[in-house]
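re: the backbone from monday

yeah here it is again, tokenized this time
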């Protein structure tokens, strides 16, 4: 069985790190995992989409309409990537916007409330969180990526455990940030199980 997971956000949010944590955690459990990223023009602020496929597959890219799970770091990016979601798939999305540059200078529209409504209308299995949830849980919105991983575990759509993710975090995260990330992971799991 193959699990297809798509992570989307903007540069600087930790999307790529989160995808690598998922893949490494799966491989530590003896699963095959493939990943790939598409990164926008700007390193910070550009679109980032990471593909993670766990199990038997020949390509690292998640085909359209086949993602079991979309983990979205930002509502506009969540809506943009909905074409990847399969029927019955789940979306874990942060409602806190990262307004694109063109919208911030008045050259394009951006309406995060509209994007959240679209998600609520189109996705039956949806967990919404905000950066404020992350900050209150662990003291910093910088742990959003790990909080979203926790929510994905808590939703039951990501076949990993809290312990699986913690093992990888201990290797990949600086020691001074481990406790913050553990708190974020636990809080994300709790948020999804209570949703």
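seq for it, each position gets an aa:
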């Amino acid at each position: 069985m193959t699990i297809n997971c798509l992570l989307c956000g903007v540069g600087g949010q930790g999307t790529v790190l989160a995808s690598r944590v998922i893949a490494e955690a799966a491989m530590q459990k003896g699963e095959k995992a493939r990943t790939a990223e598409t990164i926008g023009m700007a390193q910070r602020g550009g679109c980032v989409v990471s593909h993670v496929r766990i199990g038997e597959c020949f390509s690292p890219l998640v085909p359209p309409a086949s993602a079991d799970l979309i983990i979205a770091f930002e509502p506009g990016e969540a809506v943009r990537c909905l074409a990847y979601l399969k029927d019955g798939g789940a979306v874990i999305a942060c409602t806190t916007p990262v307004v694109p540059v063109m919208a911030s200078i008045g050259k394009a529209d951006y309406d995060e409330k509209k994007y959240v409504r679209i998600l609520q209308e189109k996705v039956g299995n949806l967990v919404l969180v905000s950066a404020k949830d992350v900050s209150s849980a662990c003291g910093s919105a910088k742990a959003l990526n790990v909080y979203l991983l926790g929510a994905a575990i808590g939703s039951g759509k990501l076949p990993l455990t809290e312990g699986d993710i913690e093992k990888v975090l201990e290797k990949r995260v600086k020691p001074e940030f481990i406790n913050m990330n553990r708190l974020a992971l636990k809080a994300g799991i709790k948020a999804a199980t209570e949703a």
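Residues 3-194 form a domain with the Pyruvate-ferredoxin Oxidoreductase; domain 3 fold (CATH 3.40.920.10). The two ends are 27 Å apart (CA to CA).
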